[in-house]
Amino acid sequence: MVKNKKGIPRLLAYAINALLFFVFLGILNSLIASGIFSSYYVKILMLIAINIILAVSLNLATGFLGQLPLGHAGFMAVGAYASAIFMKATPLPNFVAFPIGLILGGLVAAVFGFIIGIPALRLRGDYLAIITLGFGEIIRVVLLNIDSVLGFNFTYGASSLKNIPKTTTVTNAFICVSIVLIIIHTTIKSKHGRAVLSIRENEIAAESCGVNTTYYKTMAFVMSAFFAGMAGSLYAGYVGILNPSGFAFMKSIEILVMVVLGGMGSMIGSVISATALTVLPELLRSFSEYRMVAYSLLLIIVMIFKPSGLMGTYDFSLSRIIGKCGDKISSHLRKGKEGRR
Amino acid sequence: MKDINQAIIPERDKDKTPAIECIGLGIDFGGLTAVDNFNFTLGRTEIAGLIGPNGAGKTTVFNLLTKVYQPTRGKMLLLGKDTKDLTIAQANRAGIARTFQNIRLFKDLSVMDNVLIGLHNEIRYSLAEAIIRLPSFWRAEKVARERALDLLSIFDMADMAEKQAGSLPYGAQRRLEIVRALATNPTLLLLDEPAAGMNPSETGELMENIRKIRDMFQISILLIEHDMNLVMGICEGIAVLNYGRIIAKGTPDEIKSDPNVIEAYLGKKGNANA
Ligand SMILES: Nc1ncnc2c1ncn2[C@@H]1O[C@H](COP(=O)(O)OP(=O)(O)O)[C@@H](O)[C@H]1O
Ligand SMILES: [Mg+2]
What pLDDT shows up at residue B272? Predict the structure, then answer.
């Protein structure tokens, strides 16, 4: 069997990861079933999952690709509405419709990502920030007013799109999280991911190495948009009611704060900070007016004391940790044996 | 001056198409003519030098050859093919690789990753294969890593593979840039001041290695360098640039005694001490 550097077989590492994930899901579900986790906790758990996907997908475009998209909530909105409208209209049973809605939300967001990414990413420089900023706002305004243009009810604008089937569960939300994490991780650790990183590091040098930078920028950005759309679908199936005001500029900034706080280019950082920034506001409900103030302060403090974010670019690897433990144990055993001799 | 359509060392590989042929190449930046009437041919497996005072336009020539800049006038053939419509990446794939005067490594990535990015187009698997981690992915990665280590060992750098590129000493960073360029499997390698910042013993080693690379890979090398020992020591042909124009072309000995060159470097007689 092929072994990785630290010596545990690759397939074993995969199996351990998968096992731990299902144990985690099992524990969550039994806590919910036994009533220890109230429905309030369940809601927060789902929100954590959604925010993790949003943060990690934005990190792909910021931390890994080195761009600064400011309209992530726009992609989320597009995905949410696409999947909600589909879920309301489809006669399919929920367990069939849910994955279709999820992928549809992702695809619609990806198409938008492609359309605005192509012109912005062909150029060197920070055009993407401006274009995505505009995109996010345009999407919100369009969702708000499109019905009066169309002449029939489509997004229901300010009066909200209601009665969306509530298909999102803790289990399917966290399965989505794990899939997104796996896809982004395996992408980054491949020639495609290295190409994306090389663009962040030095675009001219990347091109001089024969890397088609426009292609890889678009790839990373479209992937980022796809997962944001997917998160939007989950969100639609979680709240059951959508209003364009939920996808305003501040939502994009909230996601960006999660990424910056966790560390640009660190997936585990995004996971931790998305979790913390979902739980904290709930704990501090009574101070909710001050949330944005708190965010700004937090961000300023992190920028002063640890500009690379909490985790820097560090990424967590279970097999590395197991490998290290294994090394320690085996060196321990060896010492033990030598001692006895 | 020699015929522009002749390589500086015409006797070797004269039956093969030249690595590059520049015909009347020129570029203006606004009102400034940075390079003008650049006629230059480099034969296969030839090592040539491009020298001249600071601001003469040497780096600009490299940027024209690698398509970082589009020429205002003239044309350039890479292995006999016109490069008019190529992007930087396409020019690389067509066989031209380079290093930079101001080192442009992927600083936050490992030495290994830097070389693997050089090998980007040699590694063949799709994104889908990578995501589901098919055996073809692991196989291609393994081959690429071994190749990267082989390339690094040319400069005795294989043991640094896991180090962060930006943490290497200056000389090692310059060598890594050469390795990364070689990884793209070029026919023509452009080195922009490869010995800058190196001490004499490092420079001596570099000279040996440049020759070694040419012999191993059978590639043409064009280098910009201010270290005259290096230039005179390894270049078979030299072109001297001043104010964007070639003022002399020839063998090292011809260049050393060329009055135009002496004037460009030391100023006009009488001004020499000014
Ligand atoms: N992108 C640019 N825009 C304007 N001027 C440039 C640009 N690149 C180079 N130049 C000018 O072209 C001239 C040649 O520069 P360069 O090729 O870097 O010289 P060197 O021979 O020292 O490498 C200089 O006067 C420089 O200022
Ligand atoms: Mg220069």
Answer: 40
* A303 in a structural domain: no
Whether residue B94 contacts residue B102, with contact meaning beta carbons closer than 8 Å, is answered with no
The complex scores an ipTM of: 0.91
- Find the residues whose C-beta lies inside 6 A of ligand 1: B 29, 32, 34, 52, 54-60
pLDDT at site B265: 78
Separation between Cα atoms, residue B257 and residue B140, nearest integer Å: 53
Q: Classify residue A194 by burial, with Cβ atoms within 10 Å: 0-12, 13-18, 19+.
A: buried
Residues 6+ apart with CB under 8 A from B169: none
Which pLDDT value is given to residue A226?
Answer: 98
Spatial CA neighbour of A206 closest among B28, B118, B116, B170? B118
Find the closest chain A residue to B145 by CA distance.
Answer: A191
CA dist., res. A220 & res. A212, Å (int): 13
Q: Contact at 8 Å (CB) between B99 and B191? A: yes
Q: Which of B117, B164, B223, B185 is nearest to A203 (CA)?
A: B117
Q: Is residue A296 part of a domain?
A: no
Which positions 5-24 of B are in contact with A (Cβ < 8 Å)? none
- The ligand minimizing its distance to the Cα of B196 is 2
A187–B130 CB contact, under 8 Å: yes
pLDDT at B192 over 70: yes
Please give the mean pLDDT across all residues of chain B.
90
Predicted local distance difference test score (pLDDT) of residue B258 = 87
Q: Which domain holds residue A155?
A: 15-243
Q: Residue B2 — pLDDT band, cuts 50, 70, 90?
A: very low
Q: How many domains is chain A partitioned into structurally? A: 1
**Does the pLDDT of residue A5 top 80, yes or no?**
no
Query: Cβ-count burial of A189 within 10 angstroms (0-12 exposed, 13-18 middle, 19+ buried)?
Result: middle
Cα B55 from Cα B59, distance rounded (Å) = 9
Across-strand partners of B110? B164
- Asked if the structure places residue A174 within a domain, the reply is yes
The secondary element (H helix, E strand) that includes residue A36 is none
Does the beta carbon of B94 lie under 8 angstroms from any beta carbon of chain A? no
At B95, which helix (H) or strand (E)? none
How far apart, in whole angstroms, are the C-alpha atoms of residue B94 and residue B90? Answer: 6
Q: Does A326 map to a domain?
A: no
For B215-254, write each residue's pLDDT tens digit.
999 999 999 999 999 999 999 999 999 999 999 999 999 9
